[in-house]
Design a protein that fits this description.
Helix content: 25-40%
Shape: globular
Oligomer: single chain
Largest sheet: 10 strands, mixed
Radius of gyration: 19 Å
CATH topology: TIM Barrel
Number of helices: 12
Number of strands: 10
Strand order of the largest sheet: 7-6-5-4-3-2-1-8-9-10
Amino acid sequence: MNLKELAFPIRIYWDLTPQPDTAAINYGNICDQIVEMKFFTLNLRDSGSELSKPCIEILERLKNRPVNVALTVSRLVVNPPTIEYLSDLNVKELLMDACSDDELRFIAEMLRQHKNSSMVIGASFQVNSDNYRDIPDIVSFCMNNGITRIVFPMQRLSEKEECFFIGRQEGKVLTEKLRQIEIGKLKITIHDPFLWRIFYPETAFPGAGCQAGNSMAYISPDGNVYPCPSLPTVLGNIQETPLKAILSSGYKKELVKSLRKPPEECLVCEEVDQCIGGCRGRTIALKNSLKLRDPACTEG
C-alpha cells in the first residue's frame, strides 16, 4: 500500500471525553459513516471514571461491523465484569492509561487474570516533560511483567496540551538505556518520528513522513475533525457536515498535499525522503508554520 496516495484515511481516532455541554452528536450515525467509509481501525479514548454513554452506544453499534475497535480507558473503569463485557462487544484491544507504578501493576494483574481474553490488553503511556526519563523503566517493567503491548499516544495539541518533545542529547541517553532491554519482544506503537528514533535508531520511521489527514483522522469530543490529534487545524465538525464530506473536501486534500512537501530547510538533509519534515503538527503548534522543520529535529 502506498501511504502517500490514500483516497480516505484508514485509521480514525475519536476522543469521547470530556463531553461538552453543547454537543449533540448523533453517535450512531457517525458509526454508520465510519463503516461506510471502510475505516480499518477506530481508536476510541474514554477517559472518565466509568464508561460513558456515548462509548457504550458506539461499541454496541459496531459490535458486529467490519471495523477493528481499540479502546483506551482509565484503570478506574476496568474490572473483571468490564473486561468480559468489552470482550463480548468484540473490542480488539483494551489499553489502560499507565502514568504510575500502581497503574502498571494493575495492568499486569489484569493480564494475569485474563490471559485467555480475546482482547489484547496493554498500556498507554503519554510522554510528557515530567515522565520522559522514566521510559526505560516503564519498558523494562512491561517486559518483566508480561505487558507486551505498549502505545505511546499522540499529543492532543488541538486541546492546547503541552507541546513536548525530547531533545536529541536526552534522546541519546534514553536510547543507550533501551539498548539493554529486549524491546523486540514487545509490540510498541509510536507516532512521533523522533520518539521512534530513540527506540529504533537504525530503522526508518514507517509511513514515510507525516500521515495526518492521509492515513489517519481525529475527532475531538466536541465533534471537530482534525487531520490528526497533534495537528491543530480544524477540517470541519461532524454536527454540521458528514464525515465523508469533511475528509473528501478540497481543503483537506490541499492540506495533505502541503504536509507531504518537506520544508525548504529540510531539502539538503539526507533523511528528507523518510522524515519529510518530521511532525508537522508540532511545527504548527510551536511555530505556526508548515515552512519550518520539526523543532524536535533542531533541538539539541
